């Protein structure tokens, strides 16, 4: 759980702080008619640095597991304006010409640095590539392919599960190259301003790093000469999911196209919540998980269903005005914590 600080607007308005970290992964919500304590793997309060969130959330271990061939996912969830994009990427104003201060960089850039350091120290032959897409109004769009974003078909196969057809994957070898791809894709992502957030993400974004390693063996297999014989290759993925914020249209003052976008966002988050609720219950063999209810749940099926390792960062506001959304996020995260996977 990450609790953002009260904003200047909230302080001026006289909003009360209703969320408090109790230490040891406990967070307490105290307001009129509401008094509840929740327990999580870790809680980061308003004073926590980006570095503390990276180290304390287990993100470094997730990078190492992805290099070892596991399918790893981190997703940020929460109300609009709760700090999801900041947690994952850092300040919104950064660009190639105006990079963010190193202390403010988010989980993504820190993970890229860690991944490249690990790949150099392990000495294995790693091939790294990235793909970046958004789900906007239930359409999947590539954020890296040149030209205006066009809708791509979502397919299913027995070997790959759900996948996006004709998605561009770009190889990279340096930190500058992958950060450039991240910023390039983020600038093409749909955002709008409304009453709760000046830079509200109107789409869910998924950046996936594909890691293919071919370790070279020093000893040849029987019958082979003394050439470099390759061990079986391992293919891991590290997927960063920046979910669009849940929002009440009445609170944001959205109308017209913004209202249509909000309804689409809320429908897909509801489908995700439904899948998480079913996964958190003890399951018999016949339990059906409705991944096909939205494009988002189809693309996250592998992350949620148990063949991968998933970190969920739930971002919340401490403001009394956001109380109902904060409680909703905490209940959602409590259910997600009960999901067990067998990677």
UniProtKB/TrEMBL annotation:
Binding residues annotated for ATP, in chain numbering: 78-85
Record's GO cellular component terms: microtubule; microtubule associated complex
Gene3D superfamilies linked: Kinesin motor domain
Pfam families: Kinesin
Name this protein carries in UniProt: Kinesin-like protein
Annotated CDD domains: KISc
A Gene Ontology biological process term: mitotic spindle organization
Coiled coil spans: none
Protein family per UniProt: Belongs to the TRAFAC class myosin-kinesin ATPase superfamily. Kinesin family.
Gene: Kif12
Localization: Cytoplasm, Cytoskeleton
């Amino acid at each position: 759980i990450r609790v953002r600080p009260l904003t200047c607007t909230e302080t001026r308005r006289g909003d009360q702080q209703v969320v408090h970290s109790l230490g040891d992964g406990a967070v307490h919500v105290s307001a009129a008619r509401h008094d509840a304590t929740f327990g999580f793997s870790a809680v980061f309060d308003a004073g926590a640095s980006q570095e503390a969130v990276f180290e304390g959330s287990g993100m470094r271990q997730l990078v190492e597991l992805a290099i070892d061939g596991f399918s790893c996912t981190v997703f940020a969830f929460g109300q609009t304006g709760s700090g999801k994009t900041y947690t994952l990427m850092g300040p919104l104003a950064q660009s190639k010409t105006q990079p963010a201060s190193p202390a403010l960089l988010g989980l993504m850039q820190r993970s890229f640095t860690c991944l490249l350091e690990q790949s150099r120290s392990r000495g294995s032959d790693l091939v790294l590539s990235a793909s970046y897409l958004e789900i906007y109004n239930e359409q999947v769009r590539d954020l890296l392919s040149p030209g205006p974003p066009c809708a791509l078909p979502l397919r299913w196969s027995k070997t790959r599960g759900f996948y996006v057809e004709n998605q561009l994957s770009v190889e990279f070898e340096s930190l500058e190259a992958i950060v450039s791809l991240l910023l390039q894709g983020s600038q093409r992502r749909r955002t709008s301003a409304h009453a709760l957030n000046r830079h509200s993400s109107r789409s869910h974004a998924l950046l996936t790093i594909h890691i293919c390693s071919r370790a070279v063996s020093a000893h040849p297999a029987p019958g082979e000469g003394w050439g470099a014989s390759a061990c079986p290759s391992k293919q891991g993925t590290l997927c960063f999911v920046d979910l669009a914020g849940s929002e009440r249209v009445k609170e944001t003052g959205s109308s017209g196209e913004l209202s249509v976008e909000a309804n689409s966002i809320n429908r897909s988050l509801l489908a995700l919540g439904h899948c998480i609720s079913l996964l958190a219950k003890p399951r018999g063999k016949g339990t059906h998980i409705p991944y096909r209810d939205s494009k988002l749940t189809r693309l996250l099926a592998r992350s949620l269903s148990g063949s991968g390792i998933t970190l969920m960062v739930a971002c919340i506001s401490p403001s009394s005005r956001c109380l109902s959304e904060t409680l909703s996020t905490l209940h959602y995260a409590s259910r997600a914590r009960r999901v067990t996977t067998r990677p």
